[in-house]
């Protein structure tokens, strides 16, 4: 199937209120343009330099999401245009994003990445760490970042019961963080679900799915 057909197929199987992030990492501009021409406007990349290069070449009404691990010293390259950063896993990173966003007189929306997987390789914080950040004075002093929700990645496994359990945990963490009655902000986004597990994720409360290979085919440099 073509990229346009894949997109159409996914959109038809997903509730309207769920946002689809087309994960375009390693894909060429011409492949991404196929998705763009089929109406897709939100793309996710996991490397800052790659996203910056693509942003420069592509239409300006694209919303670029950073979904990969972020190194603090590279935040400055995307601060002018990035629309949502999914992968905040520590406060120092948030502070740097605030600083760089201020230079461009904008607010950058971010998600707190929560570690739900049973794998050491996955980044993210605990509920406690997320709560401590949201309640801290240091966080309250940041005026150019907004926490819009949470993100999580399930364990890479065939065990759907385990995946479901992990997604449910993220939904519970989201609900519990919202009970903190954060000043002036409400978490709205639960970013969870990829090509292999987005149906499960949606059943567990996902509001934003990040889908790559089901749109563009297997990961490669094509
Ligand atoms: C690559 C990636 C995805 C998309 O994965 P697919 O299995 O290709 O859909 C989603 N989220 C993150 C964080 C990724 O790195």
From TrEMBL:
Residues 2-219 form the Alanine racemase N-terminal domain. Its cofactor is pyridoxal 5'-phosphate. The keyword Signal does not apply. It comes from the Bacteria. Coiled coil: none annotated. Keywords: Pyridoxal phosphate. SUPFAM superfamilies: PLP-binding barrel. One of its GO terms (molecular function) is pyridoxal phosphate binding. It holds the Pfam family Ala_racemase_N. The modification N6-(pyridoxal phosphate)lysine is found at residue 25. NCBIfam families: YggS family pyridoxal phosphate-dependent enzyme (TIGR00044). Belongs to the pyridoxal phosphate-binding protein YggS/PROSC family. Pyridoxal 5'-phosphate (PLP)-binding protein, which is involved in PLP homeostasis. This is Pyridoxal phosphate homeostasis protein. It comes from Gelidibacter salicanalis.
């Amino acid at each position: 199937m073509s990229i346009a057909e894949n997109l159409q197929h996914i959109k038809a199987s997903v509730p309207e209120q769920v946002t689809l992030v087309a994960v375009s990492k390693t894909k060429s501009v011409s492949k991404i343009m196929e998705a763009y021409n089929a109406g897709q406007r939100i793309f996710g990349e996991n490397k800052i330099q790659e996203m910056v290069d693509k942003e420069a070449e592509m239409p300006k009404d694209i919303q670029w999401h950073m979904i990969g691990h972020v190194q603090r010293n590279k935040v400055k390259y995307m601060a002018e245009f990035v629309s949502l950063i999914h992968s905040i896993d520590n406060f120092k990173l948030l502070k740097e994003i605030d600083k760089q966003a201020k230079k461009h007189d904008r607010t950058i929306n971010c998600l707190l990445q929560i570690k739900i997987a049973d794998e050491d390789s996955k980044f993210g914080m605990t509920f406690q760490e997320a709560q401590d950040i949201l309640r801290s004075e240091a966080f309250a002093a940041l005026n150019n970042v907004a926490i819009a929700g949470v993100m999580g990645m399930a364990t890479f496994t065939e065990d759907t019961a385990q995946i479901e359990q992990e997604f449910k945990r993220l939904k519970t963490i989201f609900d519990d963080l919202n009970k903190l009655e954060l000043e002036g902000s409400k978490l709205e986004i639960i970013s969870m679900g990829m090509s292999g597990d987005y149906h499960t994720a949606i059943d567990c409360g996902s509001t934003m799915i990040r889908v790559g290979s089901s749109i563009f085919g297997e990961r490669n440099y094509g």
